[in-house]
């Protein structure tokens, strides 16, 4: 087995954004299910939140290659 | 430059890594003109030709091509620019957002087009350049509207916050709004394309190695690996479209934030 601890660290750090992205889409689905006509309003907000939560995983991914 | 696993086939399996993104020069020894450069030029030609052909013979009753072109334009104009920036100011930014979206989209989709199969945005320099343009635009627009100090105040001082917490908030807001925004914008695009391409490489090269070079029954493991490569190719198509959309959506949001009136 070869590899660095960076791999393990990145795997651990991806848990947080994973949960965050899940919560965001859960809330989005909930919102659309309760009020389908709000879909157009909620969609950009959901994707924005998704992008912001994902940024943490992305930074970890880059640090994995730098470190 | 480390050997490219597609060119040099050794008996040992070479795990895909960041060395797979260092492509050999196309013309002579120029390190500058490599496959990503060629793909950038190709994407410009594709986007320009498509929309030129679609808009060339514009008629009141649109043909198939004109209909597709208008649909593509309307998506960015109404779905991103007007909804995010607001109907008063959005028209100024439509050409930029429109070109940005289709440029990024075509370059991302190169990642799954057979025979090309390299997302240009997995080279971080391209993403830095695009995010740099966005950074210049949203800061420039804000400075033009509010003045330099006014813009700094607008973007770093949140409204309705008690004064004693401002020394803590202003540096945080400055770092997050001015310094980190272009970084996350570019790295998000880059890392998604990079990781996606790496994922496909692992499944395709690993599956091929298992199928052709492994011992005995282990070869059978190559079949599900290649099937999963197909599944992940479709998943990548989704990610590539989504990332192009998010890049343009965030660019529009930053501009909208710079243009917002004082509260």
CATH superfamily of chain A: F1F0 ATP synthase subunit C
Q: Portion of residues in helices of chain A?
A: over 70%
Mean pLDDT of chain B: 89
Major sheet characteristics of chain A: none
Low-confidence stretches of chain A: none
CATH architecture of chain A: Up-down Bundle
Helical residues, percent of chain B: 55-70%
What is the total tally of β strands of chain A? Answer: 0
Specify Rg of chain B, calculated over alpha carbons: 23 Å
Inertia-based shape of chain A: elongated
Distance between the termini of chain B: 55 Å
Q: What is the quaternary state of this protein? A: heterodimer
Tell me the number of helical segments of chain B per DSSP (H or I, 4 or more residues long): 7
The low-pLDDT segments of chain B are: none
Overall structural class of chain A, as computed from helix and strand content, comes to: mainly alpha
Largest interface: A-B, 13 and 16 residues
Number of helices of chain A: 3
N to C succession of SSEs of chain A: HHH
SSE order of chain B, one letter for each helix or strand? HHHHHHH
Task: Report the CATH topology name of chain A.
Answer: F1FO ATP Synthase
Describe this structure in words.
The complex is a heterodimer of chains A (67) and B (263). Chain A is mostly helical. Chain A has one domain (2-66): Up-down Bundle (F1FO ATP Synthase). Chain A is built from three helices and no strands. Chain A has helices at residues 5-13, 15-34, 39-66. Chain A is elongated, with a radius of gyration of 16 Å. In chain A, 12% of the residues are buried. The mean pLDDT of chain A is 87. With 263 residues, chain B is an all-alpha fold. Chain B has a domain at 10-21 and 96-259. Chain B is built from seven helices and no strands. Chain B is globular, with a radius of gyration of 23 Å. The chains are: A mainly alpha (67), B mainly alpha (263). At the A-B interface, α3 of A face α6 and α7 of B.
